[in-house]
Structures are given as structure tokens and as C-alpha cells.
């Protein structure tokens, strides 16, 4: 029988991998990462930073933090007695709030001033309604009393020349007799009377002349006594007698003309 001989497989001997190409392979990705970082920095300098770079930067320090936590756990020895004592000595702090629980509502006037565009005026202290009502009543009574006193003082000043200085009773009770009638006349004139009620417009001529003569006689006697006693009086008013009055004529009215030219 013929024996079929097959092809013998060739055993390829694999050469041990050298370290140099491995280093090249390791260097290649690092170079590519450096290039990417350079491109990324150039892109971020012109435009907004990339979102992927932030995540990588945040994830990078995780191993260091984990190592620090492990080192802290290894160094921890437990709770000491001093910590326990300090925890027992802690006391609860109580805070009491004494302020107003409910804020006071603004009045209508304050709200209107707050909402207006005008500058605010000086603030006025708020008062309760009862206090305001009592103050208003007191002010009204005081105003009425002051007005009454003012009227009495004005009347006293106007009628002081009618009082008799010799008796103190007249000063308290007021004028009496003829002076009382004169005082009444002054009060009526103060209320708006056009003339005096004591003025006698119509009387006989003899009576009028007698009254004027008596008045001038009294005035002359008063001045003579004052001159003898060295008292200086006011100047006497001289009445103008027989003054000629000019006739008033309207504009363009008839008048006496002048004769000229003999015609």
C-alpha cells in the first residue's frame, strides 16, 4: 500500500517580545493625549470650554481623596474619655423672643403717604383713638376759654377811658350811668353799626351851638389847668372856618366861556 504522506506543519518559533516596541506603544497614546490636550486648550481659548474636560478634571482627584479617607480611618483610635465628658457637659440653650408677635397695621394716612410719590414728611408718633379724642376735647375747651378771655381783654382796653379811677368798684363792675350808655354805644359800633346811637342829627340850632360852646369851654379849662401845673398836652386841632369849596364839573360839561374878538 502506498502511504500518503501529509504536509508537515511548520512550527514557527515566536521571538520574545522586545521591550523597546512596548515602550513605543506606550508612548504613542501619551503623545496622542498630549496633542488632544493642546487642541482642547486652543479650542477653549477661542470658544467655551468643553463639557467632557470638566468631568475628567473632577474625576481625577478621586483616588487621592480615597487614600486620605483610608489613612484617616486607620489613624482613628475611637472615642476618648475627654470627648465623652465634653459631650455630657453640653447644656441646652433656651432663647426667648419678647418682641411683638403681630405687626401693627398701618393707618390710612400712613398707607397713603407710603404709596404717594411725594417725599415723606417728619414722622408723627402714633396715638390711640381714646387719647386723641380726650386731647381734642381738652383743646376745644382751652380754645373756647382763651377766646372768651381775649374778647374780655379787648373790651376792657376799649372802655378803659370810661372807667372811674376814684372807686375800685367801678373797675370791677364796669361803667355805670352815662358811661354805661357810652360803653354800649362802643360795643354796637364794634359789631358793625354805621353811626353812634348817641349822635343827635336833628336838633334846634340854639341847642347845637350851646353844646359846642360848652365843649370848647371845658377843653379851654383843661388846657389852662394843665399849663398852670406844668403838664404838657397834645396840640390843639384848629378847625378851618369859611373854607371855599371848588365846584366840581364833569368832563365836557357846560361852563362859562370867554368873550373874545368883540363879535
UniProtKB/TrEMBL annotation:
Positions of the UniProt region annotated as Disordered: 1-142, 195-263
Sequence ranges of Basic and acidic residues compositional bias: 33-62, 102-111, 214-250
Biased composition (Basic residues): 1-11
Bias (Acidic residues) ranges: 64-85
Compositional bias of kind Low complexity: 86-99
InterPro entries linked to this entry: FSAF1-like, Ribosomal_biogenesis_FAF1-like
Signal sequence segment: none
Compositionally biased tracts (Gly residues): 251-263
Organism superkingdom: Eukaryota
Protein name, as recorded: Uncharacterized protein
Protein's organism: Botryosphaeria parva (strain UCR-NP2)
